[in-house]
Amino acid sequence: MSETNSPARFAEPGGGLAIEGHSIDYIPENERHAKLRSQGPFWFLGNFHFFTISIGFVGPGLGLSAGWTTLAGALGIMFGTIFMAFHGSQGPEMGLPQMIQSRAQFGYRGVILALMATMFVFVGFNVVNVSLIMGGLQNVFGLDPALVACAVVAAGALLSIFGHDLMHKAFKWALLATLPLYAFVTIALMAGAGHAHAAPAAHAGVNGVAFATQFAIAASYNISYAPYVSDYSRYLPKRTSRAKLIAAVFLGASLSGTWMIGLGAWLAQQLSAADALVALNHVGSAVAPGLGSVLVIVSVAGFVPIISLNTYSAMLTLLTGVDSFRKITPTPRARVTSIAIISAIVLTCVMSIEGNGIALLDTFLTVLLYFLVPWTAVNLVDYFFVRKGRYAIPHFFTPKGIYGAWQARGITAYLIGFCAMIPCFNIFDATADKAVFVGPLARKLDGVDIAWLVGLIVSGLVYYVLSRSLDLDAEREVVDSIDERDLVGMMRDGH
User: Fold this and answer.
1) Residue 102: which H helix or E strand, with range?
2) 29-366: what fold?
3) What ranges make up the beta strands (E) of 282-430?
4) Rounded Cα–Cα distance for residues 55 and 261 (Å)
5) How far apart are CA 195 and CA 189, in angstroms?
6) In whole angstroms, what is the distance from residue 358 CA to residue 51 CA?
7) What mean pLDDT is predicted for residues 398-422?
8) How far apart are CA 138 and CA 119, in angstroms?
9) Cα separation, 206 vs 210, whole angstroms
10) Interacting residues of 274 by C-beta distance below 8 A, sequence separation 6+
11) Where are the domains of the chain?
């Protein structure tokens, strides 16, 4: 029996400290207990941490001044958040995780192409996250990196096992703890804390390639949230205002992202910072003895929900992939097993990869954008311009439904868009200080990477053109024949 069709539930949502009862299945209307007001703070914290501060180190490292880095980062964050926020509106309207909904564009089994790209995102982010924490805590406290990695991965795994409700609470607690922390650091830095004992970075100015690179990295950072957002908005009532939800997600994610990138840029320029946790310790210690250690400890503790965010969405992605080829049952064992596998992969990667965390971050975000952009273009064009939010939800859970096992339109659009990006690729391995691959067009543009823009336009247009042959009238008849009771009943009975 399929996970999505089983009547068994091991916990009901909203019931306190209990393992979430849903995973990749539909959330019925009577279980949509989330509140719109939680979305802004949730996504504000999504960027409100030392990882985002590290993104602000990129511009100064390329010779860009803190002011120009802040501007490039802000524009990039806002650009990326547009896509992220529009994906978020799909959650309440459909009550499904993001990657289940992608079966409409890629097919019941064909979605594996998008799943591989998004799994790379979720696992890769945690590899970079944990690497940054390991390096920072070793530099500040001399802690053993292996023990640190095991501790933070285990904490994130435990939180993701309990799931949606506890994670939302953890994000709220983390925000309450870290908001005054980063406000203090910002004010202290403006007041000159730590400047006397640090040699400012060499004079930096404006540089077109560096500006474009900072923009692209910031944009990719928030575009990377696109596969996540519906996972955390699907418990909102179906009639939630689309405009208000998009605005809440946009404002939350873009404001915190801009703040943190700007803070990172000034830490890099004024203190020559190359490690966010070390920089926080430096600023805090300059104000009062021991305060730096407190800032680092609270910052790492407040980051654990982000580790769980990636682990949780990776779990949904893994279960979706397995369910696409072999039906699975929603037991606690399936959930825990998938999270254990994902956590083990993250730990293995972390222990195997050598190199500086910031350099790793730079390369990872660049490559990440290449894999994710064609998917986000296909998904959004389908949702807003082709099917316009009207889907036969029970048909997501069978290869014999109207969306089929393989959808050539989505797969073709993704591959064509990805191939069109290759001449624009500019992959640089900062750990080895050498270019890995520079496409001919990127070389002509002096290294400016516009691959993301090419991918968005080409994949979106190709999918839109190919979708003109869809029989949307026939699909709408199927959609109109399904109501809430039919939907829950059909999924319970395995149809």
Assistant:
1) none
2) Hydantoin permease (1.10.4160)
3) 426-429
4) 6
5) 8
6) 9
7) 94
8) 28
9) 8
10) 57, 61, 268, 356, 358
11) 29-366
